[in-house]
Amino acid sequence: MWNLWHGCRKFSEGCAHCYMFRHDGEHGLDSENVYKTSSFYLPRAKDRKGVYKIPSGSTVWTCFTSDFFIEEADEWRKEAWNMIKERPDLHFVFVTKRIHRTLECFPDDWGGGYSNVSIICTVESQRQAEIRLPIFKNVPVRHKGIICEPLLEPINLRPWLGDWVEQVTVGGESGPDARPCDFEWVIGIRKDCIAADVPFHFKQTGANFVKDGKLYRIPRWLQMEQARKAGMNTDK
């Protein structure tokens, strides 16, 4: 995990019960204050023997307490790209709701995208799918994925699924105020993925999971396990 900056602004309906805002609030922190963290230079960090602290071949989940493309980080992003370029032996993964900002935020030598970067676009509702996915489809990125989390309603992904999407991930919302996730919505997206030959991954049920019309309250520690037990995944 590489949280090189911290802090965000709520951007769309999926942000309503953001875990980062919840955790910061428990400690009296202002989540809208965006700042560089002490982990900013982590990809360059080495131990006393001069060995990188992040081992070669690792997947680096990036910016999970902010958004890599948030405006407040524009002055720091160039250096972040430089570090990513310096570590072609790592694979960096970004999840973003701000897909509309990617073109203006890519480095000058981006071209068709760095081979060690995956960008995953969040679409939590039909409205956001219709706004973000037409943009995302045409953004030059080598590795693209879609995540429907928190899944707030049925979403028709069929118009956009194709071989440009490496995987679709679905998950319900966690936390004490979590909105329900209906298993029928998960099944619908999975069917669309199978029809388009796109790998599908059911990540977590969320805290309030509806199946066959019945609401189940799932504790946090069981949400991923219950999703896995559903046997829905077609990814490798």
Structure summary:
It is built from 6 helices and 11 strands. It has 236 residues and is an alpha/beta fold.
Q: What is the number of beta strands? A: 11
Low-confidence parts lasting 5 or more residues at pLDDT below 50? none
The main sheet comes to: 6 strands, parallel
Give the helix/strand class. Answer: alpha/beta
The value of Rg in angstroms is 18 Å
Number of helices: 6
> Which H/E pattern describes the elements?
EHEEHEHEHEEEHEEEH
Approximate helicity band: 25-40%
| Intertermini distance | 22 Å
Beta percentage is 15-25%
Q: Per the principal axes of the C-alpha atoms, what is the gross shape?
A: globular
Question: Strands of the largest sheet, in order across it?
Answer: 3-4-5-6-7-9
Report on this model:
- With 236 residues, the protein is α/β, with parallel strands linked by helices.
- It has helices at 19-26, 74-86, 102-105, 126-138, 183-196, 220-229, and strands spanning 5-6, 35-36, 59-62, 91-96, 117-122, 143-148, 167-171, 181-182, 200-204, 208-211, 214-217.
- A hairpin with a 2-residue loop joins β10 and β11.
- It is globular and about 55 Å long.
